[in-house]
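Appendix C reproduces, verbatim, an entry submitted by the partner laboratory led by Prof. M.T., so that reviewers can inspect both the input and the predicted structure.
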Amino acid sequence: MSSPAHSVIVLDFETTGLSPNQGDRAIEIGAVKLENGVAVDRFQSLMNPGFRISGFIENYTGISNHMLANAPSCEEVMSEFSCWIQNSNLVAHNASFDQRFLDAELDRIQARYNGTFACSLLASRRLTQDAPSHKLGDLVRYHHIENDGVFHRALADAEVTASLWMVLLNTLQQQHQVSAPSFELIQKLSKTPKASVDNFLRKYAATQG
């Protein structure tokens, strides 16, 4: 059974480093819930990882040890977040990173979720191949996506990723005549070789008609 690509939860983590396998933890989660392409709810929270974060991460994210001192624990926040994302598919920019941290944090509290992930970065590489870069900030400028100039904070990044996701879905509609893309289509598209994208979407659009 297919699910609509316009109804998803777009999420972003800020973390203490690159790998939960090396002991890194989440320090902030931000997420936007889209229904039929409209933002209907948001989730944001800092979370205390239980240890001091490095000066590099403080400077990179703007999140200080002082801010985290009174934040709820990762376990408390992720318990609430795991309930919030049930029955929704998930989107993130460079999704493998966010999925690693989501899985690791939920494993710690023995929680699960029942959606699957799609990656706006991989989708962008297929649908906007002329973009000079597929980093989030560069794509925001390339597509003239409205933003408040804040990057590397979870909710701000989730907000612009949600806007980018809608730009990509609109590209499917306007350039490839795919009017109601399924989430599963985006997942397949993200694994399609770049040179084969037009042919893949032409065949898909033909089955829709």
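The longest strand covers residues 26-35. Additional entries are available on request from the coordinating office.
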